[in-house]
Amino acid sequence: MVNVAILGYGTIGSGVKEVIETNNKKLVKHIGDDIRVKYVLDLRDFPGDPVEKILVHDYNEIVSDPQVDIVVEAMGGVEPAYTFVKQALEAGKSVATSNKALVAEKGAQLLKIAQDKNVNFQFEASVGGGIPIIRPLNCCLTADVIEEITGILNGTTNYMMTKMYFEGSEYADVLKEAQAKGYAEADPTADVEGYDACRKIAILTSLVAGQQVNFEHIHTEGISKITATDIKYAKAMGRAIKLLATSKKIGDSYMAIVAPRLLKEDHPLYGVNDVFNAVFVHGNMLGDGMFYGSGAGKLPTASAVVADVVELATNLNRHLYVEWDEKELELVDYKQSSSRFFVRTTQDKEAVEKAFGKVEYIQAEGVTGEIGFLTEEMTEAEYDNKVQGLNVVQMIRA
Amino acid sequence: MVNVAILGYGTIGSGVKEVIETNNKKLVKHIGDDIRVKYVLDLRDFPGDPVEKILVHDYNEIVSDPQVDIVVEAMGGVEPAYTFVKQALEAGKSVATSNKALVAEKGAQLLKIAQDKNVNFQFEASVGGGIPIIRPLNCCLTADVIEEITGILNGTTNYMMTKMYFEGSEYADVLKEAQAKGYAEADPTADVEGYDACRKIAILTSLVAGQQVNFEHIHTEGISKITATDIKYAKAMGRAIKLLATSKKIGDSYMAIVAPRLLKEDHPLYGVNDVFNAVFVHGNMLGDGMFYGSGAGKLPTASAVVADVVELATNLNRHLYVEWDEKELELVDYKQSSSRFFVRTTQDKEAVEKAFGKVEYIQAEGVTGEIGFLTEEMTEAEYDNKVQGLNVVQMIRA
Questions:
Q1: A141 and A282 share a domain?
Q2: Mutate to test the interface with B, among A140, A165, A311 (most CBs of B within 10 A)
Q3: Residues B46 and B172 in one domain
Q4: Where does this protein hold L-homoserine (chains A, B) (predicted)?
Q5: Which end of chain B has fewer CB atoms < 10 Å from its terminal CB, N or C?
Q6: Same domain (yes/no): A289, A312
Q7: Does any CB of chain A come closer than 8 Å to the CB of residue B131?
Q8: R_g over Cα of chain A
Q9: Do B170 and B241 fall within a single domain?
């Protein structure tokens, strides 16, 4: 019998219990042993819910029970999640988590403890919800040097950008609608300003680089400045605007950035709409690949957590090596990265050409009193230099 | 030192050697040991090629060398590949292959031998080329009951359908062009009649069902009857025509079929064009997911083979369990599966409505002298029954 304890009985924690119960037959077949949820930890009571029978309020009951093999952390936030996970690993229990904040900040350290204790720490659901991406990076794309990883990693903002694109609506209206539907939180900052996507690309970059990436060093822009007029320009260019979290190999390190981008129709991420997430990967041998699926939601996320649980249950006394050194990776300055830049200005063509030379002018339907144009490809530093003196209404990378 | 022997120095075999050499540093880091290609087996000589130094013509040199840990089978076809792989496994060597014919026919049996000998038999590259799909099914989607798996699994036919769609060209012209570009073989039957996709969906179905699926029992239609007129209708419906290999869970078994289908724009596979492949998966917890990438080509395919080699090298004395029983799965008759049917007839609306009742008529640009329509959803058996007596020019499932 494999005994699981779930920390936190919110959306994901209750989803994990549901998946383990609903698909128990399949899990038992794969693991080769029975599996059950022995404890659920939560501060709250749930009168009338069958969870009552296994509900505990004191974490010590779980961490001191030698029968507990696997702890699922589904509380979110760095504390007390960090302390609990650390204690579990030190007590010789394996841990699965969906907590991106915890993994981005403490991943390397917790993996080290897991290695020392010959147990495992897994976090498939921390990036891309139900989409398998962590394990594919660690176990499937092992023959490749990953040269680029770019994701639509936040369902809230992708839903909003999709709505703005197909309905021509303004940002504020779409945000209200997303909040009403429960897709965006009352304080939407973490999503719309790109902080959530930033932590996720930090995790992915740490894994492909094999070293700790400090998410605070990743240049991050959100979608809160995107307007209905920008969408009109995007349509005139045959492009979509998506919030992309990107990491590119430059020399022996990586450059990472989170920003809205104008994507061409032939890019695999172009058609990823609504709350779906997707991760595009370019390997030096594989070429282009993409993983697509539900980036959030109770059961998809819980499905990824339980896939971790299955991996943990079939490797109870065997550490699965994950390369993620605690030594911080010095990221390449994003100012060195190149792209084309879409710019809107109230100045005239003469001013535009004085600044950028040859550009591609874009005429959006019904937009007057300003000029929109696409620059040639150049580095961020070159763009900063050239754009000085031009009155910029908007800039979006293409 | 991990020693690899490659059987066959064609496109994939030479690609495997190239990947192991080019990304050696990365592989060594992941495996924790040096890795090299010790032998390449081929009947031919390659004068002037560096492979000469490790080239052998007699398989016994490889199978009798206790230093060889891993054999990569890249010859294709069932024989002598089967005999060689079997001998390697029986000699305690692990095997990786990209050979779909071998895996579809002998997969269960070779896995059984690998299990008995405590070694491994892996075949990631046999389906979807470079796209990780076998390992994700075995290791990532383990918390889900897979209810559907549908793939664009043949790059040749997807290239042809894409060309026909975007250029309005006829089948015969596109085939000629594909042959000129080396995307289609001189005898294109295996690709265009769906036999290649059939073997691949047989492998995927065997894995999700955990039992041997006989590919000869899968109803298979190719693309050779698709015309430029069909494409006009598809465009009028806002759909694309793709050759899809589908497997759906019905009760305790699966229904599998290979056939061209009219896909709506919101389906994740709609935008998969050119030689790319993709596999759509629906899990009972995960919901929809998709894996996309290069379905063929020297380096992408070799990258998937070498990912197997890495997995084999890190599990040299440990059998990784794969559920694929030799007992044949009785597939559900595809006549029980449902879809909508797009039909073209030279008869009039009265005859159409007499047969099918309410239908959705489609007017394609410039097409006269016939009627095109979409039926309601019904089973194949119901369709067969209703369509009797109607003069059908074309039928494509939608």
A1: yes
A2: A140
A3: no
A4: 185
A5: N
A6: no
A7: yes
A8: 23
A9: yes
Between B27, B145, B270, which is nearest A23 by CB?
Answer: B145
Q: Which two tokens stand for residue A126?
A: 């921390």
Q: Three-state SS for B337?
A: coil
Tens of each residue's pLDDT in chain A, 398 residues:
999 999 999 999 999 999 999 999 999 999 999 999 999 999 999 999 999 999 999 999 999 999 999 999 999 999 999 999 999 999 999 999 999 999 999 999 999 999 999 999 999 999 999 999 999 999 999 999 999 999 999 999 999 999 999 999 999 999 999 999 988 999 999 999 999 999 999 999 999 999 999 999 999 999 999 999 999 999 999 999 999 999 999 999 999 999 999 999 989 999 999 999 999 999 999 999 999 999 888 999 999 999 999 999 999 989 998 989 999 999 999 999 999 999 999 999 999 999 999 999 999 999 999 999 999 999 999 999 999 989 999 999 99
DSSP A182-207: TSS-SS-HHHHTSHHHHHHHHHHHHH
C-alpha to C-alpha distance for B237 and B361, rounded to whole angstroms: 10
Q: Which residue of A has its CA nearest to B21?
A: A143
Contact status of B32 with chain A (Cβ, < 8 Å): yes
User: Using an 8 Å Cβ cutoff, are A101 and A128 in contact?
Assistant: no
Here the tokens at position A164 are 């703005």
Q: Does A320 touch chain B (CB under 8 A)?
A: no
Contact status of B33 with chain A (Cβ, < 8 Å): no
Q: Contact at 8 Å (CB) between A398 and A368?
A: no
Residues A286, B297: C-beta atoms closer than 8 Å: no
Measured torsion, CA atoms of residues A193, A194, A196, A200, in degrees rounded to the nearest 10: -170
At B58-73, the pLDDT tens digits run 999 999 999 999 999 9
Q: CATH code at A376?
A: 3.30.70
Closest CA to A126 of A94, A156, A159, A153: A153
> Could you list the active site residues of A?
200
Which residues lie across from B279 on neighbouring strands? Answer: B151, B291
All residues at 6 or more sequence positions from A82 whose CB lies less than 8 Å from its CB, including other chains: A102, A105, A106, A110
**DSSP helix/strand/coil, A13:** helix
Per DSSP, chain B holds a count of helices (H) and strands (E) of 14, 20
B288 to chain A: closest CA residue: A293
Indicate whether A97 belongs to any domain.
Answer: yes
User: Can you give the CATH number for the domain in which A117 is found?
Assistant: 3.40.50.720
User: What is the model's pLDDT at position A182?
Assistant: 87
> Does residue A362 belong to any structural domain of this protein?
yes
CB proximity A245 to B under 8 Å: no
Please give the pLDDT value at position A321: 86
**Whether residues A236 and A352 fall in one domain:** no
Nearest to A201 by CA among A280, A305, A276: A280
Total structural domains in chain B? 3
A10 marked as binding residue: yes
B312 & B282 share domain: no
Q: Which amino acid is at B366?
A: G
The whole domain housing B239 covers 134-294
Query: Tokens 């499905």 correspond to what residue?
Result: A303
Q: Which of B144, B270, B294 sits opposite A287 (nearest CB)?
A: B294
Q: Is residue A333 a part of any domain in this protein?
A: no
8-state DSSP, B141: S
Question: For residue A387, which of A349, A354, A358, A348 has the smallest C-alpha distance?
Answer: A354
Helix (H) or strand (E) segment spanning residue A272: none
CA distance A390 to chain B (A): 39
